[in-house]
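Hi all, long-time lurker, first post. I run a small reading group and we've been trying to get comfortable going from sequence to structure in the token notation. Rather than ask abstract questions, I figured I'd post a concrete chain and ask someone more experienced to write out its structure so we can walk through it together at our next meeting. Sequence below, copied exactly:
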Amino acid sequence: MIAFTGSRLDRADHVRADPERLAGYINWKARLLALDGLMPALDDDGRLGWGTLADVPEDAELCFLGLDEGKACFAAVPPRGDSRPRMANPQLWSLMATLSPDDLALYGGARSLTDWHARHRFCAQCGGDTKIAKGGWQRDCSSCGASHFPRTDPVTIMLVEFEGHLMLGRGLGWPEGSFSALAGFVEPGESIEEAVAREVLEEAGVAVRDVSYVASQPWPFPSQLMIGCHSHTDSDDLTIDETEMAEIEFFTRADVEAALAGNGPFRCPPRHAIAHHLMEWWVNQ
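-- Answer (accepted) --
Happy to help. Here is the structure in token form:
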């Protein structure tokens, strides 16, 4: 299973779209996800910690996460969002590695949602205050009435193959020997295939063809949807964009297989990154 997928929650849109029905779930039976800011708070068994709505101030903004076996689950919006890249928070990286797959999926969704609310308290249209609506799946401006919705940014992450070799890159500032698939945001007016082609051309200087979809992953740092793709190129004559990439190289299937096993010529991404799963998929083709 790809990390951050497979949440056990029923998102229950019929509840969050009905104010009276939602209000009926805001009671002593409701569960509150325990967060320290945006960090997960774990219980004695190493699972996500839970409390009750009595654990938050009356004026706290609450996001309805969904239903877990009929019980309503909420998370409170923290005072501030988190603009730091995930690599700058080794404690979070370590905690994530200990969570079970279903807990990690639940936490990822809650983190993305509450972080968005913490960073969008003002209207992008008029600058007025915004208030939480639809159980946390919307914010409405108190001045102009504009509605704003939680944002998800699409990112293509792509394997590029040349004559049985796989193109991988090391970004600027990455540790020596760490390689991953190239990636980049989808821009307005682009299809996924066009974004793959543009990003590879910009970063590696080669054209790609036969772009195909492999898998996707929600990535809550802060809120991306990683769209995993595979493509081919007819050239290994690279022109590297040195403003973004430190290295780009082609590796054999044996190289990639060895790296996945932990003893290859490079360090591959951790298992909870979709790039790791894309490499496994490629090796197994």
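A couple of things your group might point at:
The domain at 153-283 is CATH 3.90.79.10 (Nucleoside Triphosphate Pyrophosphohydrolase).
The chain has a mean pLDDT of 95.
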